[in-house]
Amino acid sequence: MTEKRNREELIAKRNLLFRRFLNNPKETGLALEIKVLDDQIAKITQRMVEEERKANPSETKSAQPKKDSTES
Fold first, then answer.
1. Residues 17-48: pLDDT tens digits?
2. How far apart are the two ends of the chain, measured CA to CA in Å?
3. ∠ CA 8-13-14, rounded to 5°
4. What does the pLDDT read at residue 72?
5. Residues 54, 48: Cα–Cα separation, whole Å
6. CB atoms within 10 A of CB 17
7. DSSP conformation class of 53
8. How many domains does the chain have?
């Protein structure tokens, strides 16, 4: 399974749990499950961004601000 697909599935699960949590806010177990999913989604997103940067190194260099010649 690709990272993007895995991320999409995790987001769908998270959104479903969040809707259940909104209806039952006393179910703290749901909040813990949502947090675990959020952490997994964040890790996958970070890996995807890093892979994108590796694939397009010239774009990341041009996106960095240029130093002013007066700066030390």
1. 999 999 999 999 999 999 999 999 999 999 99
2. 48
3. 95
4. 46
5. 10
6. 19
7. H
8. 1
Q: Is residue 59 part of a domain?
A: no
Q: Which domain holds residue 30?
A: 3-54
CB atoms closer than 10 angstroms to residue 7: 19
Residue 71, in any domain of the structure: no
Q: Does residue 64 fall inside a structural domain?
A: no
User: pTM for the full model?
Assistant: 0.74
Per mean pLDDT, which of 31-35, 52-56, 62-66 is the most reliable? 31-35
Structure tokens at 48: 């995807």
Answer whether residue 44 is part of any domain.
yes
